[in-house]
Amino acid sequence: MIVRNEELRLQACLDSARDLVNEILVVDTGSTDATQQIALRNGATVLPFDFQHVDFASARNYAIARATGEWILALDADETLHSESLPLIETLVNRNDNAGYYVERHNHAAGKSEPAIDHAVRLFPNRPGYMYKGRVHETIDASILAGGGCLHVSNIRIDHHFSPDPESRRRRNRWYIGILMEELAADPTDYSRLDFLAAEFHQLGLFREATCVAEGIARVRPLDPRAHLNAGVYHLMFCPDFDQARADFNRALELKPGYPEALSFLNTLEERMVRSPSH
How far apart are CA 129 and CA 146, in angstroms? Predict the structure, then answer.
């Protein structure tokens, strides 16, 4: 875990996983509240980490380098592991496959009845060379594949509870955008950063900027049907350009015949064209 001033949420996270793990490594990036005391009280090893240069991958790799277990489960302090997932994790670990597992993360936001769901690799074997990359939105997927491992989707569920303060979330969005831009300036070929940049712009309601990034993703991944689908969605829903949206969806269908999402959005597009013939 990576933490900073998480005294209000840390205990729930630790409680959700305590019956599963035999080692807890908490990387603290500068807490000034009771976070460290709570971690120590729960038997965790607290690892202070200099975070003046923001780099979440380095912080996670710092913990991995000190982990003694054969498997690693990565959690954040504002997350809890769903109780029904514990036996599933034990089953997967006992297989001892060289594989990382995507978990299903339910993102709960104040004022929204249904969580938004995304997926991330959070369970993986502790093997040499398996390291995170990315100063923010750090990922380990590519490292596992490069090391000869596989990636599998699992039914492991994590509940993620967003801060109830919308301005706090917006500050984090802007902060992450700045760091992602710095990463792209340092390495313009690191196209993995573009997906996260589009998401940050989208969350801030900056749809024109998000559309530009989605277009860029489609250009650098010309054979990826989902990249063209996403660009089409932006041209349909957020920065209307119906002709371009149709071209995007048709390109996605060329690459993936019968692509159900592309067909569905094409139908939506035609319905909108009927209602708005001026487009």
Answer: 9
pLDDT single digits (tens) 200-242? 999 999 999 999 999 999 999 999 999 999 999 999 999 999 9
User: H helices within the chain, ranges in order?
Assistant: 10-17, 35-41, 56-64, 86-95, 141-146, 166-186, 192-203, 207-220, 225-237, 242-255, 260-275
Residues 226 and 137 in one domain: no
Write down the residue that tokens 């999402």 correspond to.
Answer: 261
pLDDT tens-place string over residues 12-40: 999 999 999 999 999 999 999 999 999 99
Sort strands 150-161 and 79-81 into parallel, antiparallel or unpaired. antiparallel
pLDDT for res 278? 57
- Read off the tokens for 245: 């949206």
Domain that holds residue 22: 2-161
Please say whether the beta carbons of 235 and 241 come within 8 A.
yes
Task: Name the domain count of the chain.
Answer: 2
Residues 22 and 145 in one domain: yes
What are the two backbone dihedrals, phi and then psi, of residue 30, each rounded to the nearest 5 degrees?
125, 40
CATH number for 33: 3.90.550.10
52 and 172 both lie in a single domain = no
Query: 3-class SS at 124?
Result: strand
C-beta of residue 74 within 8 angstroms of C-beta of residue 59? no
Residue ending a domain, among 110, 130, 161, is: 161
The pTM of the full predicted model, rounded to 2 decimals, is 0.89
pLDDT tens column, 236-267: 999 999 999 999 999 999 999 999 999 999 99
